[in-house]
Amino acid sequence: KAGVTQTPRYLIKTRGQQVTLSCSPISGHRSVSWYQQTPGQGLQFLFEYFSETQRNKGNFPGRFSGRQFSNSRSEMNVSTLELGDSALYLCASSPGEGANGELFFGEGSRLTVL
Amino acid sequence: AQKVTQAQTEISVVEKEDVTLDCVYETRDTTYYLFWYKQPPSGELVFLIRRNSFDEQNEISGRYSWNFQKSTSSFNFTITASQVVDSAVYFCALSDPMGYSTLTFGKGTMLLVSP
Questions:
Q1: 3-class secondary-structure state, position A33
Q2: DSSP letter, residue A72
Q3: Between A42, A45, A88, which is nearest B43 by CB?
Q4: Which end of chain A is more exposed for a tag (fewer CB within 10 A), N or C?
Q5: Which residues of chain A have pLDDT under 70?
């Protein structure tokens, strides 16, 4: 069974630009959640999508957005990038019902903002 | 507000030593789940264990064991006879009342096992 796939793995952007990250969950999983990992703040929840609907959202500004497609693939977008957005962005999938936090993570997309 | 504290930032041991990673949590919920995840250098977090708040039985899985004590709000993780392959960052996490896929993570403990 293929794992969670995130693309791109690495990217470099400049301040003010926008970026789109993609996540393909494990086949059959309907929930996709996103986390931001930085040395200072650690792992922070961004949002979760289930069956194309945003189910939860973390405490991040509106520049961070996401969506989920009918095949459960998800994208997240960050607009007007700031230096502080440099981070490892992790996507996780779960069956969505009864998983109770057993998340399957991808290897992440490492974003560097210059 | 929920909070998970992993006071140990980094631990260094020599192979075959036992090591315990501490985790203390805060929550107002009566029903919750606690987790441990491992993050190797490749980056992805690997699920290790889930424990619900009503089950205080300790669990052992091979060289890994977990001690859940509700009275002290702790969920500690012990690796027996550590190996170099255990070197990683270990995260303790707490389920959030908002949803099943929303976890509050501790800052992590980096474990370095040297030969």
A1: strand
A2: S
A3: A88
A4: N
A5: 1, 96-101
